[in-house]
Structures are given as C-alpha cells and as structure tokens.
Design a protein that fits this description.
The chain is α/β, with parallel strands linked by helices and about 525 residues long. It folds into 2 domains: about 375 residues, Alpha-Beta Barrel (TIM Barrel), CATH 3.20.20.70; about 120 residues, Roll (CBS-domain), CATH 3.10.580. The chain is built from 19 helices and 24 strands. The chain has an 8-stranded parallel beta barrel with strand order 5-6-15-16-17-18-19-20, surrounded by 6 helices. α14 crosses α17. It is globular and about 75 Å long.
Length: about 525
C-alpha cells in the first residue's frame, strides 16, 4: 500500500538518482525514521575492513602525525577499532611504534624480547630505554636461542647495573615452562590453568623439545583476555595470536626522476609485516593515479595475505582502479577534513556523501570495503556515512585526546593540542610532501602549494570517552531506523534533503546553553 511517506522519502539509490549532479555532504541530508523493535543497546556495530580484519566498532584513527602513533593505536584497538600509524617519521621509528602496539597486550607472544647471560643489568636498562619497553622482565637465552633462565623486573635496577645477568637470573630448572605441544586447542585456557596452579608466578615460557624458546605468556595478559571472553563488552581488536591490531601508512617512495623505488617499498613493507602490522595504507591526496596503482599492485604481488587500504578517491572509477590493483579497502575523501584546503587550493573534490554513494556502488561491484575519510564532526555524521561505507576514519575528533601525539598547551585557561593537515607546510617538511606530489628535498619550498592548515584542537579527554560517546550515538541512530546491525542500516536508510533552515532547526537553537558537552 502506498503511503504519503513514499512520496517524500526515497531509498539511497532513488535519492541520489534524483540528486544527480548535486554534491551533497552530511549536513545536507537527514535520515527518515522507521518502525523499530530494536533498542540501541541491542545493536551491533561490528564491521570489517578486509576478509581478515573484523572490528567491533566501525572506526579507525587517521594516519596523521598529530593523531596516530602507538598510544592512539593501542587505545583504538582496546575499544574495538583500529589505529593507522602515520609515516612522518623514520622507517625505524615507525617499526618501533608498530611493535609497541603488537606487544602491548597479547596471549602468547611468539617473539618476546630476550637478553643473553653475558650482559650486565646496566645493558638491560639501556635496552629498555632504547626500545621504549614498558616491562623489565626478560627470558635469558644462549646464542642459539635455547632458554637459560629468566630475569625478573625486581633486579633490573640501577644499583645492580654492574652485575652480570648470569649472576642474578632465575635458572632454567626454576622457570615455569610448558612445551608448545601441550598448549592444545585453547592456549589461553591452558595458560590460565597453569597460572592458577602456580600462584605468585606471572610468566609462563613456551619451549620446544630441544629447549628453544618459542613464546611467552604473561599472567596480566591472560587474565585480561579471559575477562574479554566472559563479558558482553565490546571486544578489543586482536589478531589470531591475541595481539592488538594496528595498521601503518606507507608513502610512495620515488627516485629523483619520479619513478617508484620498489626496493625501498619492498624493504619497508617487509619490515612492517615482520613487526606484525595488520594492514598498510598506500594513499596520497589523489589515489586514482599511476604511482599509487603501481604500489598497490606491487605490494599485493609480494604480500598476498596482507590487508591493503588504498586511496584517496571520490569516484567509482577510482574505486575500480584501486580494486583492480589489489586493494581490500578504498579510502574516500578529497578535501572534507577540517584542516584540509585541497578544494580551495586546487579547486577539486566532491562533497563527501555524494562521493561515498558513487564510490560505494563500485565497491559493491568489486567486492572491496569503503572507508569514509574526513568531514565527520558528530556521531550523526557517522550514521549517515555508514549507510554507504563499512568504516569511518577520524582525525579531528581524536586529535584532542590525551593519546594523540603532541604536547598539551594552555591558552587563556583552556587546554589545546596541535592538529595539522598532512598537506600543511609543516607536515610536508616532516615527510608527507610525497602524499601531495611534492618533493621538498629537491624543490624550492616557496613553490609548494600547501593543501592543509595548522590548527589547535581543544583537549577532549581520553579515547575511551570519545569513542563511547560516538558509539552510543551511532547505536541510537540504528535504533531509530530499526536496524540491528550495519547491513540493516544500509538497507533501511531513507534520505531527505535539508534546507539551511532545516539545518538550523536540527541543532539546539534559540536558547542560552548553560552546559555544553
């Protein structure tokens, strides 16, 4: 039966067909409510960014140098999302940041940090400081990798700096160990049972038949994972070895003549994979370009199991191009970010919601995921983005968190953190110029046109606070549309255009607000 609403509200395809040739963004539209028997707390925000990576919430942090390093990536993974570590640092430093995430909380660490018996405690302290380790207990091995003992953190102190590891370690026959053959189908349950039988011990070392060290369990990690399994809370993002997931951005390395440096690309991605990275982002401001396509094809050919995210594009042709090159996910967005000036400087870009729609159609046909990158300022924007995309990438909304890189500064009694576009002059000086097709090492800085600005973001608390608020808002949106999960959201979404008066009506108005969130 036809209703009056049928004349006003259209499904996504009909709506965008009716608005063909018009660039629309989030505030230009609103979603019509539907009959619902779904409460917000009943909804699932689970999604995936590849066949191998599932997330509990559809949010990733941007690969920007004022947004994501290891602290942000750890926080994102603990809350069910994923963080993408930026590349405005040396290759070695980026590898270190990835390692910090992958070793933060895990079940069995298959490659634990180790020391040898000939070192001094002073040497061990130097290793801890150099690598930024948050622990001070180490298995002790010989040159072949056989287990000799264990150094506990209680002896790794400056007053013991001159003492040899061999003199203070717990010998092999007193170290709690298990043969890897005895782990069974549920290693966490096995380790948990052993720790219960050995109260006061917090390390379980895994060895093979020849006493070679094969891994390590920490009591705190095992307890944390067991708590996750037995509660209904949002699950952290973990890999098959129970390590937190994270991604890393990779620049398109080039020779002075502009050709892609495949040797450098292969070396860097190889090192990231060895460190345990779950996904790499190969992107520039213009992802529908020969260089990005070449890099995606190369990485896919040499790292067949690695999740590859590529971008940025704003067209169906761009999605098809990157999908054919081998990308698992494609980032959508050119110029929507609060610190991006690409549309002003270059005069290009498509308003984000229209870009997402046309890109999503190609994504469905090619079987790749779509990531909405930029322009999101509130949870309602995320709901609208997820009608087309599988995941959103956040920059500005996370830049004020305590986990974001950068120092906190006070101005007129308020606290701020630096936030800058990767196309800003300062960010390009630190390495992101290649993202915008420039090379500051071989060109005059004055001839480079920045496509981003430098700004400040007011400190917004922790990632936990921000993500909890955003996830709650998205769940409310699903409840209004009668959608139990994201596929249902996409099916139920009905759009209507909003006038400028409607936009004003949508927000609190004609009041003096006494408390702001």
């Amino acid at each position: 039966m036809k209703t009056i609403d049928s004349d006003f509200y259209k499904n996504s395809d009909d709506f965008f067909a009716a608005n063909a040739g018009v660039g629309l963004t989030y505030d230009d539209v609103s979603l019509a409510t539907c009959f619902s028997d779904v409460l917000p707390r009943m909804t699932s925000l689970a999604t995936s960014i590849s066949d191998k990576i599932n997330l509990s919430i559809p949010i990733m942090s941007a690969d920007m140098d004022t947004v994501t390093e290891s602290s942000m990536a750890i926080a994102m993974a603990l809350h069910g999302g994923i963080g993408m570590i930026h590349y405005n640092m040396s290759f070695a430093d980026q590898i270190t940041e990835v390692c910090k995430v992958k070793t933060y909380i895990h079940g069995m660490n298959r490659h634990p940090a180790t020391i040898t018996a000939d070192l001094t405690i002073g040497d061990v302290i130097e290793i801890i400081d150099r690598n930024g380790y948050g622990f001070s207990s180490f298995p002790v091995i010989d040159k072949e990798g056989r287990l000799l003992g264990l150094v506990r953190g209680g002896v790794v102190k400056n007053r013991h700096a001159d003492r040899k590891v061999a003199d203070v370690m717990i010998p092999r026959d007193q170290v709690l160990t298990i043969n890897e053959k005895e782990l069974g189908n549920d290693p966490i349950a096995t380790a948990d049972r052993i720790f219960l039988d050995h109260i006061g011990t917090n390390k379980l070392l895994v060895v093979d038949d020849n006493n070679y060290l094969k891994g390590l369990f920490c009591l705190s990690d095992v307890e944390h994972i067991r708590d996750e399994i037995t509660t209904d809370a949002i699950r952290p993002s973990r890999d098959e070895s129970f390590r937190l997931r994270c991604g890393a951005s990779v620049a398109v390395p080039r020779y002075p003549d502009g050709k892609v440096n495949y040797d450098a690309l292969n070396e860097h991605v190889s090192n990231l994979v060895a460190a345990g990275v779950d996904a790499v982002i190969i992107s520039t401001a213009h992802g529908h370009s020969a260089g990005v396509g070449e890099c995606v094809r190369f990485v896919r050919q040499h790292f067949k199991e690695l999740t590859i995210i590529a971008g940025n594009v704003t067209s169906a042709e761009g999605v098809e191009f990157l999908a054919d090159a081998g990308a698992d996910s494609v980032k959508i967005g050119q110029g929507p970010g609060s610190i991006c000036s690409t549309r002003i400087v270059a005069g290009v870009g498509i308003p984000q919601l229209t870009a997402l729609y046309v890109s999503a159609q190609a994504g469905k046909a090619k079987g790749v995921r779509i990531i909405a990158d930029g322009g999101i300022t509130k949870s309602g924007d995320i709901v609208k983005a997820l009608t087309q995309a599988d995941c959103v990438m956040l920059g500005g909304m996370l830049a004020g968190c305590k986990e974001a890189p950068g120092k906190i500064m006070e101005i007129n009694g308020k606290l701020y953190k630096e936030y800058r576009g990767m196309g800003s002059m300062e960010a390009m000086r630190h390495g992101s110029a290649a993202r915008y097709g420039h090379d500051l090492r071989n060109s005059k800085v004055t001839k480079v046109a920045p496509e981003g600005v430098e700004a400040l973001k007011e400190v917004s608390g922790s990632v936990d606070q921000v993500l909890t608020t955003l996830a709650g808002g998205v769940q409310s949106g699903l409840g209004y549309l009668g959608a139990a999960d994201l596929p249902a959201l996409r099916k139920n979404a009905r759009f209507i255009r909003v006038t400028s008066a409607g936009q004003r009506e949508s927000a609190p108005h004609d009041i003096v607000e006494i408390k702001q969130k």
